Amino acid sequence: MATAEKATLVLGGAALGVVSFAAYQKFTQKPAVRPAVNVPVNRPPPPPSPPSTQTSASVGGPNLSNMEKARTILPFGFPGPVSDIVYRNAYVTSYNRRDRNPNWVAEHLTAASLKRGDDVDRQKSTFKEDDHIPPQFQAKLNDYFRSGFDRGHMVPAADVKNSQVSMNETFYLTNIAPQVGEGFNRDYWAHLEHFCRQLTAKFSDVYVFTGPLYLPHQEADGKFYVKYQMIGNPPNVAVPTHFYKVILTHHQGKYSVGAFVLPNQPIPDQTPLTAFQVPLDAVERGAGLTFFDRMDKNALPNLCREIECKLVIRKFDNAQKNVQKLPAK
Q: How would you classify this enzyme at the top EC level (predicted)?
């Protein structure tokens, strides 16, 4: 069954986000005759070297390389865009300065990494701004205050229980994006995070990439628009329309992959996880990213054919939910 059909059957008219993503997949589907190619990783060029104090008669001449020409065009610096890469004990994040959200956050889960360390307690952790980011591009705590959205972890604190320092690092705002609370961050999304942890019982290595998406939605005039809310005063942080998780598992030399896109809205617990499974390249096109470019991705088995992709619904107690809540509007 097609993704759009699954989404419609599962969530009905309330699942505008899922349906719009399915429509986006169809709208941007690559022609069948186009051969599969490796998509290069887009990396911004390094800032040019300071201009030489010596003048040259050959400046702009035919013998200069493009890089040398670039130094004459950009003598005072490269404007960007820049994706700040921040390395933590348990994860790596790529931060988007415009949206004030991560592009992606990567983690590596194993049975050993999930063991709880002595005296590690989430109650000791607090949300904090990330000084690795220039001040004018930082997400701020005040941006979330009374916004109506949760500060949603991309790498959840529950994945990092082996040390208090590592758990504390998951509370940097470079690992956070605005998420709907009830029905999503505190419920269905939390069940998906638990699913990822449970995979370590069957696989020796579980690699997880998580991040936001800003996907087009078809409106009454039949046209597609990308619209999303901004929070903060002044408006500073983008509210994603969707979130993705890309999961790569490994055991005894065999790999499998699963990609999931969920709308940033309440999702009924009974909704099958497979309703949100999409091809890996759909996430890549929607996010502008390339995953696993050192592997033959076309040969990777479907994770949900290797195991049953089914969520275990865990009703988190009210105290745990209150930890994730923000002040009411």
A: hydrolase
309-318: per-residue pLDDT in tens?
999 997 655 4
298 is in an annotated binding site: no
Q: What is the rounded CA–CA span in Å between residue 186 and residue 180? A: 9
* Residue 205 to residue 199: CA distance in whole angstroms: 9
The rounded distance, in Å, linking the Cα atoms of 99 and 199 is 31
Alpha helices by DSSP H, listed for 247-292, are 280-287
Alpha-carbon gap, residue 8 to 263, rounded angstroms: 13
Q: Are residues 53 and 139 in the same domain?
A: no
Stretch 34-50: mean pLDDT, rounded? Answer: 39
Domain ranges, residue 202: 3-38+82-324
Contact 149, 143 (CB under 8 A): no
Distance CA 256, CA 40 (A): 22
Q: Is 191 a catalytic residue?
A: no
Pinpoint the alpha helices (H) of 153-220.
164-169, 188-198
Write down the catalytic residue from 132, 153, 217, 250. Answer: 153
The alpha-carbon radius of gyration of the chain (Å, integer) is 22
Q: What is the pTM of this model?
A: 0.80
H or E element that contains 320: helix 318-324
- Do 201 and 271 fall within a single domain? yes
